[in-house]
């Protein structure tokens, strides 16, 4: 995508910028986070869009959705408004688990409504209600986070989106793609933590167990590789996993050792095309790096699929010196879906 087209695509997306400015945690990507330099995670929605063209967690709730929330205990349809990559599947197959646990402090109540976990991704939906009005433009900005088995989540991809349903109700959507499939096992202990949120003082915590969604999981190990002519970059498709909440492609990217040393390792953007010429990019594709791997382990997340394609074609690109997106034809890679274990 060239610069003009990219700018037009941003202009066409209905994103309330003031709401995004009100909280720093609208989109959190584990992009180029490295232990030795402690690089700050990218948090701007526009930066995140520039990296992945995904706008994770940037959806906002319609009037109809607000009415639905007031009338039913389940909020599965919310995922379309938050543009979750699995929204259609979540709603059609009712994949979420009802939690409805809450904690209150000084007039603010935090209720975990529902959650879903499939070994590759975790989704948690939270509703905040206050005795007085809630504000996403606090003078003193509070913070919240999620832990799994008592430890903060360090995902390959993650985001948090918020919107106000009315003056006293805010809904929040968390989603994570883990660095490795099934790294947490069949059942996990989740805790949602909050402190000094929306103008209220005090700490909140809701914890609950969550089992993996029952459903078929298919794993394929194509182990196909391509490299640039000068052999500077090598791209290998290690594994493709089809699970209830996503289609996941794990990649290895090899590059010269000195790029580790001077912190110049590459970030490639991707589009993916299946054998039926369905294109996955922008809001249909998320991308991130496994933590602590210096960009060697990249994760692509596509929507979940009922029908497994025969192949994917990966089309990597990068931003050139002039700031334009440029395809890397040498690294284009056909990934057959036929070698399972």
From TrEMBL:
<keyword id="KW-0812">Transmembrane</keyword>
<keyword id="KW-1133">Transmembrane helix</keyword>
<feature type="domain" description="DUF5643">
    <location>
        <begin position="225"/>
        <end position="326"/>
    </location>
</feature>
<dbReference type="Pfam" id="PF18705">
    <property type="entry name" value="DUF5643"/>
</dbReference>
<dbReference type="InterPro" id="IPR040680">
    <property type="entry name" value="DUF5643"/>
</dbReference>
<dbReference type="InterPro" id="IPR025436">
    <property type="entry name" value="DUF4179"/>
</dbReference>
<protein>
    <submittedName>
        <fullName>DUF4179 domain-containing protein</fullName>
    </submittedName>
</protein>
<keyword id="KW-0472">Membrane</keyword>
<feature type="transmembrane region" description="Helical">
    <location>
        <begin position="44"/>
        <end position="65"/>
    </location>
</feature>
<dbReference type="Pfam" id="PF13786">
    <property type="entry name" value="DUF4179"/>
</dbReference>
<feature type="domain" description="DUF4179">
    <location>
        <begin position="41"/>
        <end position="126"/>
    </location>
</feature>
């Amino acid at each position: 995508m060239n610069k003009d087209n990219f700018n037009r695509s941003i202009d066409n997306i209905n994103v309330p910028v003031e709401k995004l400015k009100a909280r720093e945690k609208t989109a959190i990507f584990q992009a180029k986070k490295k232990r030795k330099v402690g690089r700050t995670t990218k948090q701007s929605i526009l930066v995140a869009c520039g990296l992945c063209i995904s706008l994770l967690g940037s959806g906002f709730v319609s009037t109809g959705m607000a009415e639905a929330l007031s009338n039913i205990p389940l909020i599965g349809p919310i995922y379309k408004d938050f543009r979750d990559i699995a929204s259609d599947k979540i709603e059609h197959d009712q994949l979420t688990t009802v939690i409805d646990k809450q904690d209150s402090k000084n007039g603010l109540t935090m209720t975990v409504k529902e959650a879903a976990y499939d070994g590759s991704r975790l989704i948690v939906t939270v509703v905040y209600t206050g005795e007085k009005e809630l504000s996403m433009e606090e003078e003193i900005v509070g913070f919240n986070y999620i832990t799994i088995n008592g430890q903060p989540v360090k995902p390959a991809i993650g985001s948090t989106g918020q919107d106000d349903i009315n003056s006293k109700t805010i809904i929040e959507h968390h989603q994570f793609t883990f660095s490795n499939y099934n790294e947490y096992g069949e059942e996990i202990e989740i805790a949602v933590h909050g402190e000094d949120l929306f103008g209220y003082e005090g700490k909140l915590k809701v914890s609950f167990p969550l089992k993996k969604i029952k459903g078929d999981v298919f794993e394929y190990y194509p182990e196909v590789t391509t490299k640039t002519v000068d052999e500077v970059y090598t791209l290998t498709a290690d594994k493709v996993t089809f699970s209830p909440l996503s289609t996941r492609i794990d990649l290895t990217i090899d590059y010269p050792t000195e790029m580790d040393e001077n912190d110049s390792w590459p970030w490639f953007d991707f589009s993916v095309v299946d054998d039926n010429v369905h294109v996955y990019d922008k809001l249909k594709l998320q991308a991130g790096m496994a933590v602590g791997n210096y960009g060697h382990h990249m994760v692509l997340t596509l929507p979940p699929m009922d029908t497994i394609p025969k192949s994917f074609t990966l089309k990597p690109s990068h931003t050139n010196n002039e700031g334009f997106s440029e395809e890397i034809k040498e690294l284009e890679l056909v990934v057959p879906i036929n070698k399972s274990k």
